[in-house]
Amino acid sequence: MSNNITPTEKSASEKSQTEVSATEVSADFQKERALQKAAVSRAHLRTGVIRSFDLGSKGTQIGIAFIYIACFVLVAIALFPIIWVILAGFKNLQELNSSTSLLPQSLDFSQYATTWTQSGIANTYLNSLYVVAGSIACALVFNGMLAYGLAILKPKGHKIIGRLVMLSLLTPATISLVPLFMNIQRLNMGGFFWPLWLAAGANAFFVVLFRQFFESLPFSIIEASRIDGCTPLQTFFKIVMPLSKPIVVVIIIYTINAAWSDFLLPYLVLGNSQWQTVMVRLFILSTQQTMNDAVILRTVVFSIIPPIVLFFIFQKKLTENVVSVGIKG
């Protein structure tokens, strides 16, 4: 029998072997990172800041008691405004102005329902979700691609660009607001979400976070993708970003919080248009003479619900990813 192999079959065999090699390298990297995280977690559980035999010391016990008291005070200070505004929303205007009690006379949810309907905040919720979704996409793609170029591709002049990115972190955001708004008006981009989305895609802080994480990725994975014939864009979307889930989650959470709570730029760009966000709508309602303080407080409650829900859902995930981002290699 003949053992001759055609050039086409040989090329396909080599490509298949390199693809398997790249997959194995990626799997090994993921396994190594998981083992590092598990080792850090075990070390923390085994030792921690205060070890078990330290608890026998009188000074250690006093210190722990002081830490607990300080944490309780800080938590109470942080939670009191949120609890107060939620409970104040159950009060009518007369009770709000006359009563000094923290607790309302009754928990009447119909007042919240009436405010939700009359204030028109339901539409602004949808607009804010559009802003958040577009901001996430731009923050990941544009900031990630710039960091990818600085950390992995490293074209000619990348050091200068990296220094300019670091220098922009020293520039207060309010200084760039005026020229940014002027350029938006010259390009006739006002009245819609495009400026808000693109602004999220030009965040120096996100670029620095992406760059630091990309530099920790094994270069062998990038080389394997190049041998497989991947273009730089394919390497970025199919190799680098899937391996960067920890920092991606961190960027997403930061972007959601920033995009939802931003007021000044959406107010300048959107104004009184139909696309105004929750924060813009809240400000406009506060300037209207027909809106009383009780209605404004209920609207504030509606505006803080998404960040609170986001915090409770992703609290553990955010902490784990911040720890894993700090692990090199």
Structural class: mainly alpha
Task: Report the order of strands and helices.
Answer: HHHHHHHHHHHHHHH
Name of the CATH class of one domain: Mainly Alpha
Shape: globular
**Architecture of one domain in CATH?**
Orthogonal Bundle
Q: Give the fraction of residues assigned to helices.
A: over 70%
Q: Tell me the CATH topology of one domain.
A: MetI-like fold
User: How large is the share of residues in beta strands?
Assistant: under 5%
Residue runs with pLDDT of under 50 for 5 or more positions: 43-47
Please, how many helices? 15
Tally of strands = 0
Largest sheet report: none
Q: If you average the pLDDT, what whole number results?
A: 81
CATH homologous superfamily identity of one domain: MetI-like
Radius of gyration: 26 Å
Measured between the Cα atoms of the first and last residue, the distance is 50 Å
What does this structure look like?
This protein has 329 residues and is mainly α. It is 76% helix and 0% strand. It has a domain at 120-325: MetI-like (MetI-like fold, Orthogonal Bundle), CATH 1.10.3720. The chain has helices at 7-46, 58-88, 93-98, 110-118, 121-153, 158-168, 173-186, 194-200, 204-214, 219-227, 232-243, 245-261, 264-270, 278-287, 293-325. Helix 1 runs antiparallel to helix 10 (219-227), helix 5 crosses helix 9 and helix 5 (121-153) packs antiparallel against helix 12. The protein is globular. 22% of the residues are buried. Residues 43-47 have low confidence and may be disordered.
